[in-house]
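1st attempt posting a full record on here, be nice pls
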Amino acid sequence: MKNGRVGEPQMDEASTVVFSGITSIKVKAPVKIGGWSGYYFGNGVMKAGGEPQFNWGDFRAGMDLQGAVRFVFHARAENGQTARVNFFIGGIGDNKRYPDSGRKETGYVTLTQEWKRFEINLSEVNLSYISGGFGWVTNRDYNWDTDEITFYLDDMYYEFSAPRPVPVFPASYEAVPLDHEGYFINSVAYSYDLAMTVLALSYAGRREQARKVADGLLFALYNDRKFNVPERGLRNGYSAGNPESFPGWVSASGQSPIAKLAGFFDIDSKQWWEDYYGDSYSTGNNAWAVLAFLEVWRQTGKIEYLEAACAIADYLHTLKDEVNGGFKGGWEGFDDNQQKAGYISTEHCIDIYSAFFQLADELEKINHIAAEGRNARFYREDAAYARAFVMRMYDPDQGLFYTGTKADGVTVNKEIYPLDVNTWGLMAFYNDPAIDVRKILDTIESRFAVEGMYDFNDDRDGVWWEGSLQKLIVEKVTGNAAKYRAQLSIAGAAANADGSITAADRDGVSTGVWLEGVSADGSRRGYEWKYNKRIHTGATAWLAIAQLGRNPLEVKVK
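the predicted structure (as tokens):
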């Protein structure tokens, strides 16, 4: 914002002068005589395929923030300077159709080169409808000794008197600076990590926290912007935070609210950009969501979680390959150009086997008939079909499971040997007489072992914590308590003080898996999927599950 005599303020949203975390906002505000400049952080409106518009009260797109007791922010001036600024919340839309319900400001405060915490008391403010979440204004009258002030903003948030009843998607990875590899997934919540988080929290007795994440998955499942279940299930990735889209954000079909996908609007190209993998639908990720919903169903008895498990299972049934066996890998690509994956993954079929068997068990307990008349027997038949493919991928001579097929759905992929297809295979089939458990464990030791733990693949260039923790669970369920305890001790020593653990013990741990990518000029290219020494919710969930001695893929065959 500005008046006619003053230039627009400049905002650098990636400043490294921080109060905490990795970025702050750097502001350069002109303060010439006779004018003012300012900025509003407001909820705008956006239709799919269009450009975001700021909402000055012309659209109904405000938020209900009742229950907030204060707005907190941290600010400081540039080194060697002072800055005098008035901060506020609300106030948008005077004399417009949809005005904010309230406004509160600090009045002009003086910023020095030291960070300071500020609070705006909201106890007497009507917060039932707010579009202008936060703002500031300044002028020359309060900054008489300069033509421009520079200051920084960081850690801005509303503080509520009690937890809000909204779903939450925790980010999959800790944020890294923007000059680090992988910064573009700072705000992504992957559905697999969310499912693992639900399981870990549920096993640990944190039912309310587990339900907040599970409720987010429920919302995402039934509010996709393009597809309905059982056309598709859950996407591979969503935007972290509350999965419900902001008021005024509308899908191409006019739907609102919808599940938020990770992405950003590029000012130069006037385009919204999203991630190819995140927008796709992976079979395995959906099977893990079934397992997560089933666990919340067991703990709460709320039928919506069992119904969601059935809905995803019905979608996964549509991926059944009646010719080659197993289940296709899902749907890949962006909404208008999605293609069914041709490959069949052993790992995905292991997931389906366990998820469908557990689903059938739950349905039998309550004699519940699933959607379209499908019952427990239907899901057991699909589970058996998935098992048959897994056993085809089992090589008794080498003592391992192959990763699955190539894109033709027939040729066995022998180019990559992942650890997790073997750890999951043992977690699901350790009691199955068709496999030699001891030989698979020996193969894992000889081909994947690194410094007392294990790598993702057999190049052994670093420890992959997720798979290593799965291996701990295998040791426990197969009766090797001593090794389970010894390796759990190693994992515990690698964990952080807050209980979290990184995806790998170093940066750049390779997988040999290549993903679809898009380069800066818009051309397609592949890139290798690597793990870094970066806190990961998925790995942390597996650490908790291993510490609790649980086996999410446990199947009790009758």
